[in-house]
Amino acid sequence: MAPVSYLLDGRQTVGLCVRPLGQVLESISLFAADGSGDIYDVITSPWEVYQPTFTPDGKEILFGSEEGGLVSAVWAMRLDGSHKRRLTAAAIEAGGTDVSPDERHVVFYSQQNTPRPTQIFVMNIDDGRVTQLTRGPSVSLDPSYSPDGTKIAFQSGKSLEESGNLFTMNTDGSHRKEIANHLVKPENCFIGNCLTPDWGTKPLE
Fold it and tell me: Hey, which of 28, 79, 95, 172 would disulfide with 64, CB 3.0 to 4.6 Å?
């Protein structure tokens, strides 16, 4: 199974993942983190789906998908798979999403249908306006909001295979700061040992 996202629903911790179903289908699935009960397939798809994540209120799932023959787009749906809708335009080629704690913004990485290095963008959920947050020759990927919504963690490097440096920045792209570097050897990313920042949720009080 792919990397897992977790949600505490007040009774138990629920996991969210992508898993293969045979040779041609994939599913976005829910399961109890303690292993009890059955795995629930929210949707099954002949298109590649990846990096699902819960919205902060736990009512929806955001994920990337190649549905419709697109390179990549960000989609949203309810926990039962209903009300599925595409959030980003086809040309954006968006993936690696995270939702701000106030649920007003979605942050993602994209090449915007160009040969330029992948950069990080943010989209207003209410009006769909997209703003670029990172620039330059480096590849920037996998943004993750801080629990208070004031910072974004992300990885960056010279190429997709060498994005092993961890950074933070403000949510408007300012005050970019390197936290750690050379965390992953390039060859290891091909066997699944990639750097995927995840700031985590606000601790329970």
Answer: 95
- 132 shares its domain with 188: yes
CB 50 within 8 A of CB 63: yes
CATH code assigned at 142: 2.120.10.30
Residue entry with tokens 């939702």: 99
Is residue 81 in a domain? no
Examine the pLDDT at 153 and tell me if it is beyond 70. yes
Q: How far apart are CA 38 and CA 41, in angstroms?
A: 10
Residue that has been written with the tokens 């040992």 in this structure: 193
pLDDT of residue 191: 46
CA pair distance 121, 108, nearest whole angstrom:
5
Terminal C-alpha separation, the chain: 31
**Do the beta carbons of residue 168 and residue 177 sit within 8 Å?**
yes
58 & 158 share domain: no
SS3 track for 17-57? EEEEECCCEEEEEEEECCCCCCCEEEEEECCCEEEEEECCC
Identify whether residues 119 and 186 lie together within a single domain.
Answer: yes
Q: Structural domain of residue 115, as residue ranges?
A: 88-199
pTM, 2 dp: 0.79
- Cα 118 from chain centroid (whole Å): 14
What type of residue is 130? V
Please give the structure tokens belonging to residue 47: 């298109």
With respect to residue 35, please indicate whether it lies within any of the assigned structural domains. Answer: yes
